[in-house]
Automatic annotation (TrEMBL):
Sections of the chain in a coiled coil: none
InterPro entries: Host-pathogen_enzymatic-act, N2O_reductase_N, WD40/YVTN_repeat-like_dom_sf
Protein name: YncE family protein
Extent of the signal sequence: 1-28
Record organism: Streptomyces himalayensis subsp. himalayensis
Keywords of the record: Signal
């Protein structure tokens, strides 16, 4: 088994009141909707998509129960065409190779994020190395549409609650594009901080939050060199007009909370069901913080255990991550944390911030919630599998083999009788 390396959400009245209270002192990761406890036997079939970044495939697995693998989809059917295009353009080639040697850790990044259409007819995929977003017909495996992002790399996405719009971060152009999920037509875009990363729709799709993480591929990782990482901030926009509503500079909030030692690069996030609290991870930190949206301040911090086998040399941590991946159960009382560089995952009680058992996992990269809301599902990028952990007990319940370097895991849909287009 290869030794992989990794890197690297309904009411919002209080937040809106805050946003409209006046300009910020600064200038300028959706959790999936909770599914019903019982899956319908009619219409599209609920599944989970697992993006195998280095393979260029997406595994489709059961969204609950034993999480068994259903099939596999090739998300780079146009690979030869894209590579030819890249090799004929010296600038594109430079960036392509830069992605490979930087965030790709020596591998091409063929799938970062994916969301299916509500009817389960297509899946939309961001492909970092190809700097694009594509819609793939789930029945035929063919590309419906392709949207080249601005700049030279695509990254995290988010889908609106109604499933009609998809937002994608263009990480080298500091831009988020919002597309019609059926046609790929751009509906709008907005500027972000440096290296936009996580995107989250809130208030039923009225607002869109983007978290920028700055430069994470340099070796300038000592705390005193944090200023070299760029302009990192949370940008909140109106999801219809794309006008900026609020900018949140976590540097100011962290300093006010007494944690000048922590990076302000916001990584994965999780909102409480009422969206009053935001939990977030930051670069280099084995833990997470709690942010109260209405009062616009950090209220608590949780430091999680370190693995004694993990090097303290920050330059050895993939893309400035220590912990990368978090989700919250539908009830809003448990958080699931992926302790990436510390090789474990754990369920944390939100009231007490007490962690449960540390579940051994090989560089867990992402955490999401099962279709029935009972389990946290993590991607183990170091062992090419996904693992389900019971929210109630904090114990592992299942592991399923998937493709090379699984990263994002998202709930989605396929046709009730879906099978892999290529029989994979």
């Amino acid at each position: 088994m290869p030794a992989h390396r990794t890197r690297h959400v309904c009411t919002m009245a209080a937040a809106l009141a805050l946003a409209l209270a006046g300009p910020s002192t600064a200038t300028a990761a959706p959790t999936a909707p909770a599914a019903s406890a019982q899956q319908s036997t009619e219409g599209p079939r609920e599944v989970m998509f697992v993006g195998n970044n280095w393979d260029g495939t997406a595994d489709v697995i059961e969204s609950r129960g034993d999480f068994a693998r259903i099939g596999r989809l090739d998300v780079i059917p146009d690979k030869d065409e894209r590579l030819k295009e890249i090799h004929l353009d010296p600038i594109k080639l430079i960036y392509f190779l830069g992605v490979r040697q930087g965030p790709g850790e020596g591998h091409d990044q063929f799938v970062d994020d994916m969301y299916s259409t509500p009817d389960g007819s297509a899946v939309v995929v961001s492909r970092p190395s190809f700097a694009d977003v594509v819609s793939i017909d789930l029945a035929t495996g063919r590309i419906n549409w392709r949207f080249p992002v601005s700049g030279y790399r695509s990254d995290h996405m988010a889908v609106s609650p109604d499933g009609t719009r998809v937002a994608v971060s263009a990480s080298t152009s500091n831009t988020v594009h919002v597309l019609d999920i059926d046609t790929g037509k751009q509906l709008g875009s907005f500027a972000t901080g440096d290296k936009p990363h996580e995107n989250v729709f809130t208030d039923g799709g009225k607002y869109l939050w983007n978290m920028s993480i700055g430069e994470v591929t340099t070796a300038l990782d000592e705390p005193w060199l944090d200023w070299t990482k760029g302009d990192r901030r949370i940008t909140v926009v109106d999801a219809d007009t794309f006008a900026q509503v609020k900018v949140i500079d976590m540097r100011e909030r962290l300093d006010a909370f007494g944690r000048k030692d922590l990076s302000d690069a916001v990584r994965p996030v999780a909102f409480t069901p009422d969206e009053s609290k935001l939990y977030f991870q930051v670069s280099f930190f084995n833990g997470f913080l709690e942010y109260d949206v209405a009062s616009d301040r950090i209220t608590r911090v949780k430091t999680l255990p370190k693995n004694p086998a993990t090097s303290e040399d920050r330059t050895t941590w993939v893309n400035d991550s220590r912990h990368h991946g978090m989700s919250m159960n539908p009830q809003g009382d448990k958080l699931c944390i992926a302790g990436t560089m510390d090789d474990y995952a754990t369920v944390v009680d939100r009231a007490t911030l007490q962690e449960g058992p540390l579940v051994t996992a090989s560089k867990p990269y992402w955490a999401t919630v099962s279709g029935d809301g009972k389990s946290c599902v993590i991607s183990e990028s170091g062992s090419d599998q996904v693992t389900a952990i019971d929210f109630a007990t904090g114990r592992k319940v299942a592991s399923v083999p998937v493709g090379d370097h699984p990263q994002r895991v998202r709930l989605g849909h396929v046709a009730a009788d879906w099978t892999s287009p290529s029989g994979g």
